[in-house]
Amino acid sequence: MEEETIGLTRRIRDVALRWLPERQIILRTDGETSYLRLTTGAQLGLVAIWIAFAGWVGFTTVGYYTQDAIITAKSDSIDRSRHAYRKLLDQISDYQLSIVGITRDLQATEAEMRRVFGHNKELKQDLSSTEVALRTSEAERQRIATVRSSMGGQLEMLGSELRQISGKNNALEAHIGTLRRHLEVVEAEKAEIAAERAALDDRLWALHNELEAANSRVVLLANNVRALKTDLRSVILERSSIAADNDALRTEVSNLQQNLDEEREAHRVELRVIADRALDNINTVEEVIRRTGLKLDEIAPLPDRQLTGQGGPFVPYHPEMDVDEDADDLRAALGRRLDRWDQLRGVFASLPLLAPVDKFYISSRYGRRKDPFNGRWAMHYGLDMAGPRKQPIVATASGTVVFAGRRTRYGRVIDIDHGHGLVTRYGHLAKITVKKGQTVALGDQIGLLGSSGRSSGPHVHYEVRYHGKPVNPVRFLKAGKNVQSKKDG
């Protein structure tokens, strides 16, 4: 486990050294050169600061949208409460209509019961009158029987009046028959009245049960109404609380909006400063590349060749990198500028802008010259820098050693590929201290000044080639001095 941890630590260190190697910033003042080391740790710190800044911007943006989502959720909750309140009012209206209908049914039932009670009372009165008539008929019958028994002894005495009495007797018998028939009718009506009374009792019992059920429903509805009133009061209180919360949220949103506007303004100012600084760096690097004699649109092309500007001092102009006051345009322009800066930074790192030796004088310039051995005119594709023997020779830019050995005319020679088509050559060395395939950084020692090969004295033959074609190294040295003078200024 410990070995795996050590291996992982080494791999992380190797990745950091590969992507963020130690860099040196060369400062020249009054002929003296000093170096400012930019270690891997310092570069990691700068990267961490940049990541923290980007995280802060992202956190601010997410916080703004999160607060907006919270406010939207609160508004939805208020709308749902309002909808529930309106639905509750509709239910209360329905309950009120139901209570009115039940009240009407109770009133109709009460009227029906009163009518039945009145009809029953009338029937009782008819029954009483019928019973009185029956009692009267019985008394009359008894009186007739008494008269007949008293007349039995006087029949003989009343023979003359027999016919008359017989007629009366017949009439009485006819009247008795009529009374009997009437009595049968009364009995039948009495039975019907008893049956109707039993039916009325059943109806009264059913109505009584219905009345009790209606009373139970009325009590239940009253309880529901009281519960609804309680719920309504709770809703009203909750509505008041929600209104207070809404006022507080509106105030908080207003404050947050004000703070957000202030943060946006500060962020816009910072973006403007960063964008302007990036554009200044872009213009500086482009001017350095131009001073070296390289074609900017070849070594670091812009999209659609949008680099413009003619005549007078060289001031690069990028229309697509202009910015308005709008934050979105500012962020877009900053992104374009940073992309351009990343592109130019890689090119700039590969430019050999420094001299390969510290103490020197130019013994032979680039271009047409007389050969020091045969006196004939010839092209000299490098710069001869004479100086003390075995003086350290350093890499003029970071790159990879593609050749380290001897060549007939150059003696001990080193070729370093810096990328982007740029290669530097260091000839006539006394000693080579690097190997083919080795990666070197700016200022790393690669050999010692000497006079090997076709040489008339100790010096270093220094060449700069672009895509295999030689270019004048003096332009690169002058461009490097211009960068140094701007930094000093």
What does this structure look like?
The chain has 489 residues and is of the alpha+beta class. It folds into three domains: 1-38, no CATH class; 40-349; 361-488, Distorted Sandwich (Glucose Permease (Domain IIA)). It is built from six helices and 14 strands. The chain has helices at 2-19, 40-152, 162-291, 296-299, 327-349, 473-488, and strands at residues 23-29, 32-38, 361-364, 367-370, 377-380, 383-386, 392-394, 399-407, 411-419, 422-432, 439-440, 445-449, 459-466, 469-471. Strands 3, 6, 7, 8, 9, 10, 11, 12, 13 and 14 form a ten-stranded antiparallel beta sheet that branches. Strands 1-2 form a two-stranded antiparallel sheet. Strand 9 (411-419) and strand 10 form a beta hairpin. The relative contact order is 0.07.
Jot down its keywords.
489 residues, alpha+beta, Glucose Permease (Domain IIA), 14 strands, rod-shaped
Give a brief description.
The chain is α+β, with helices and mostly antiparallel strands and 489 residues long.
The main β sheet shows up as:
10 strands, antiparallel
| Total number of distinct structural domains | 3
Q: Outline the low-pLDDT stretches.
A: 305-315
Strand percentage:
15-25%
The helicity comes to: 55-70%
Determine Rg (CA atoms, Å): 62 Å
Shape: rod-shaped
How far from one another are the termini? Answer: 54 Å
Q: Supply the number of helical segments.
A: 6
- Counted beta strands: 14
Q: Estimate the mean pLDDT confidence.
A: 77
Please provide the ordered H/E string of secondary-structure elements: HEEHHHHEEEEEEEEEEEEH
Class from secondary-structure proportions: alpha+beta
